[in-house]
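Appendix C reproduces, verbatim, an entry submitted by the partner laboratory led by Prof. M.T., so that reviewers can inspect both the input and the predicted structure.
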Amino acid sequence: ESLRMQNITGLFTDKVKKDCIKLINSKRENTNVNDLRKMKETFLEENYIFLSKILGEPKMKFDYEYKDKESKYVKYKNITPIEFRDKFLSINLNDFVSLGNIPMYNKEYYKLYREKYLGNVYQNSYVEFLNLPINEIKQLAIKQLKDNMPVYIRINLRKFRDKKSGVLDTRIFNYKNTFGFDFLTKEEALNTHDIYPHHCMSICGVNLLEHNKPQRWKLEDSYGTLEKVDGYYIMNDNYFDEFILQAIINKKYLSKKQRELLKQDVIEFEIKDPF
């Protein structure tokens, strides 16, 4: 499934880039703003048609059925997306904040960052994050998990992963003794664009040792139940250190000092930045 989506994404990316080049060239030829906007609207219509041919058009109404906690069968017929949101989205997204662990040469801890030109789906909001040490993010994640709320994360998932067993652990393959070289630190990997947050998952559990020290974490993947263990990974805490880059946490779990940091001026960084 992921391979097919990579092909679709690659093809769609080529089309959008070609549209951008057409817009840039038209602007260089002094095309007026109104005509440029019409061009953009045409491209957006073409993009909608492209995606609809592959994925189908979004449903205006649909049926939704499930079993509740008492195993009672529940069904809603002809519900609209907005009705679904109003009924089932019980959380306020504005209560949550993005926390990053980006220990690189041009990012300081306890600063608020925003990537230029990168928008979020929710109400045209920007993608911002407060840069914190990894252990602070872990403790906030533990607080949220203890309240039965999963933690949405952005992660680099392409190293030290065994899909068959569903294990994420930096010790799972003995590369160092076999080949005799040291691997990049997290800071070095970020500085050289070796790792970046290419995938999202949810942390839904944690095993704790004494003094609230995490040993391993349970992650639910978004690619279904194939491979892994019924769609879940077991992640050693060392993997959290090296490859988790962002986490979404409810503001109520932040300390007073951390909440105050959210009020500072945002530092914007360029889209060409390694992170």
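The domain at 93-269 is CATH 3.90.70.10 (Cathepsin B; Chain A). Additional entries are available on request from the coordinating office.
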